[in-house]
Amino acid sequence: MLAAALFLSLAACSAPVTHPANAVSNTVSNAVRATPYATATPKATVRKPVAATPAPSAATPAATSVPSPATPQIYSVSATPAVVRGGDSVVWDVRTTPDVVSVVARTPLYSLPLNKVAPGHFVLSFAVPNNVPFFFHGNYHLDVAANSSTGDTAHRVVSLTFE
Question: Across-strand partners of 80?
Answer without folding.
Answer: 91
